[in-house]
Amino acid sequence: MVRNGGEECASDNVGSIIIAAQPLSANTVAYYFTYGSVLAGLHQPSNGYCEEAMTVFKEISAGFSEDPTIMSIVNDGEGICNSYGYN
Predict the structure, then answer these.
(1) Per the structure, how many domains does the chain have?
(2) Which of 21, 44, 50, 84 is the most buried (most CB within 10 A)?
(3) Rounded to two decimals, what is the model's pTM?
């Protein structure tokens, strides 16, 4: 794979790129619940991913609590994190 003009990427030859988060909306909610679900699924006691996942799920719930499909995904992810003691 060619990256960075053919050079291997390393911290000394690749500048920082700031990526701004997209606001939560009907067009971006799938990205949000996918991100939260992946964090929940990959959580291990050593990495604490559920802390971030629960923050994402709460944000989704605040805006989409009336959507049963979205909330079923959120509830499943929260269930995974609840099993690790996150509320």
Answers:
(1) 1
(2) 50
(3) 0.80
